[in-house]
Amino acid sequence: MSDVIRAVRCHRYAGLDDRGRPIPTPVPLRDVLSLDEIPRPRNEPGQVLVRAHYAGVQYPDALQAQGLYQHKPDLPYVPGMDVSGTVIEADADHLRAGDRVIAQMSIGGLAEVVRAPAASVWRVPAGVDLAACANLGRNFFPAYHSLKILGGVTAGSLVLVDGASGGVGMAAVELAKAMGAQVIAGVSTPEKREPPAAGGADRVLCYGADRDGYRRFKNEVREASAELGHPAGVDVVLDMVQGDLFEAALLSVIRPRGRICLVGFTAGQKPIRPGLVLIKQAVVMGSIWAGWAAEHPDGHQRNVAEILGFLANGAVRPRVDRLIPFEGFIEAFELFERNRGRGNTVVCVHEG
Length: 352
Ligand SMILES: NC(=O)c1ccc[n+]([C@@H]2O[C@H](COP(=O)([O-])OP(=O)(O)OC[C@H]3O[C@@H](n4cnc5c(N)ncnc54)[C@H](OP(=O)(O)O)[C@@H]3O)[C@@H](O)[C@H]2O)c1
Prior knowledge:
352 residues; alpha/beta; 2 domains; 25% strand; binds NADP nicotinamide-adenine-dinucleotide phosphate
């Protein structure tokens, strides 16, 4: 076994100057990231060594390499927070060498061999595609936390998911259906209807990109809610988008005392009239699954087990949107650098 492995490394922060201050125009990520040889990691107590087959790349990875993410590792560091692969060595009762797993870590995922805490490594059910699981942590964990813990979604609930063609949005559509809920999916353009429709959404409606579109969307969601047996409105909204959509449509379609989980704000943040929240007696909640998981480790393990159960019985079937070879890893980062990354973007480290 070789003493060195290949890994992506970030050598400087693309968006910061030498004194750590933000610069107006970040240098291109391809100037700060490279595929290098580094010493092979060794296992440690309570940890698991995983041969990475696939590594997820998402917006936070690009942001972190720019130095604009909350966690700024010492340089140089190996980026990557989610992988799928096979166990090489485990100091853990629930894992053995050869197990197919997903693993989550704060950094270090884009490498041929990764080390992760045993509590953040889970066996992937037989028959489930490892590539499709490479971003399970970042897409399915926030979606399930929002639906189950914050939204209180149960069989028969009516859930509205916007940004539904994206990574978290698709996971939310599939998981809500697996939980027995009815789902209205919102997308910005008709071309984006197909993924949430394939994921089982009961209705897929377009909100466009302006106030006229948002108003039409509001009326269509109201009609669809009535048709689906919820004339008072939607029980739970999972909002990835915010911007003007929040006030123009989401606060109007929620039923009295319904819940709105704020997951992301891809369209930016806009002021709202809090009186609308009052009138609807709506509950508006910020969703940070990782914060909840740190305070409720047993609850988090139960949630992950339930997600993996849905994978095992075929109730959810994550799919890969883009598969990029290890040598071409920079393409994955550049998609997010240019705000063109969407959904499940996966780097293939070793096929498996
Ligand atoms: N709270 C948490 O724990 C947590 C965890 C993971 C991610 N997030 C956040 O959740 C949001 C969704 O993440 P994701 O991984 O699903 O992202 P994604 O795959 O890029 O999807 C985002 C979706 O948002 C919509 N969108 C609307 N306006 C947009 C804009 N100006 N730029 C980009 N997308 C826009 C897009 O759908 P349409 O074009 O159809 O509108 C897109 O499909 C992000 O804000 C992310 O930071 C939060």
